[in-house]
Amino acid sequence: METGASSGTGSFPAEDGEIWVPVLSDPLDGGSNSPTQAEIEVYSAYLDYDAMDFQAVLEGPQDEHDIGKLFGGAMFTSCCARSPTYIKEANLTHEIECELYSPTSDHGMIQTLAPASPETKEIRGRRISAPATALPEKEEAPVTMALGGGGEEDKKRKGGGKGHPLPCHRRSMRLALAATPLEMGACATFIVDLLDYMPKSGWRHRSRVRSARKRGIWSLNTEQTFLLPNHLGDMSSTCKGKKCGHRKNNDHWTYEEMKKLVDALYISGVGNWTKLKHENFSTSVRTAMNLKDKWRNLKKAYTGNAKKKILPTLDKACVEKIQKLASKMKLHL
DNA sequence: ATTAGGG
DNA sequence: CCCTAAT
C-alpha cells in the first residue's frame, strides 16, 4: 500500500496557501486496487476555505497532448487549490481554463474541456491507454494556456528538487482551473467529493482529514496522486449504500439557501422541519434533518460568544434574523 | 415517521 | 453530515 516516500514524511510539503488533494491509487503503480494511503494535514492558516476563490491547479505531464488525458481521465494526477492571491504572486503561467463536468455522476467529479485523446501514452515508463470516453464537446471551455516561465516557479517551490524523487505531479506542467465565482462551489465540491470517495479504510487518519476539511486548509503528503475515473466509478459503486465512507451529499450550502432557510424560519418559526422541508425546500436536496442541522449551525455561528465567524458573510439583515430567532428561542426555554 | 442532541 | 435515543 504505502510506497516509498509516502510514509508520512511529508514528501511534498505544500506551500502556504496550497492545498493538495490526493485522489485514488495510481493504477500504474502496483497496488491497483488499494487506495493510496494519504494523509492530509493542516498546513497553514494562510487561507480561509470558506472565503477563498477556488483555483484548482493541476500539475502533470509536460506536453499539451497530455492535457486531454489529464482532464479526460486517463491520468488525472492531482488537484491543488490555491488562493487567487497565491496564483497571482506566484505568477503562474501555465494556465488552462475549463469547466467542470462529471463523467461519472451528474454533479460531477472530474471535468474537462480538452478532448481526451484516445491514444496510448507512456507515463512514468509505463504504458497506459487513455479511456475511450471523450469529453463532451463543450465549446465554451476555452483551453487557454500560457506557456513560458512556469518552470521557474516550479523550481523555486521545489527548492532545487533535491531529496525526494520528483513525483509525477511535480513534473511541471501546471494547469489552473480557473473557477469563476459561480463555479467555485463546483470546484470545492469536486475536491471534497474526491475526499469522500476515498473509502474510509483507505485513510489512515480519517479524523484528521475531516478536521482539516472543516478548517479548510489542507495539504497533502503523498506521492500517489493518480486518479482514473473508471476506478473512481468502481470505488463509488463499491461503497454506495454500504456505509463505506463518503456521505450522501456534499453540496455545500449556498448563501441563497441559507438566506432562504432563515427567511422561512423567521416566518414559520423554528421547528417543524418536515413541514418546512415540504413547503420551502421540496425540490431541494436538503432533508428536513439537514435543515434542522443547518439552523443549529447558523445559530451557533452567529450567536453570542461565537468563535470566529467561519461562515461566508451573510448580509446584515439575514444575520439579524438569525440572532432574533436565536434569542426568541431562548425565551421559550 | 420525526425530532433533538451529541458526535 | 451521521447516528440514535426519545417521542
From TrEMBL:
SMART domains: SANT (SM00717). InterPro entries: Homeodomain-like_sf (IPR009057), SANT/Myb (IPR001005). Residues 157-167 have a biased composition (Basic residues). Residues 245-299 form the Myb-like domain. PROSITE patterns: MYB_LIKE (PS50090). Residues 147-167 are annotated as: Disordered. This is Myb-like domain-containing protein.
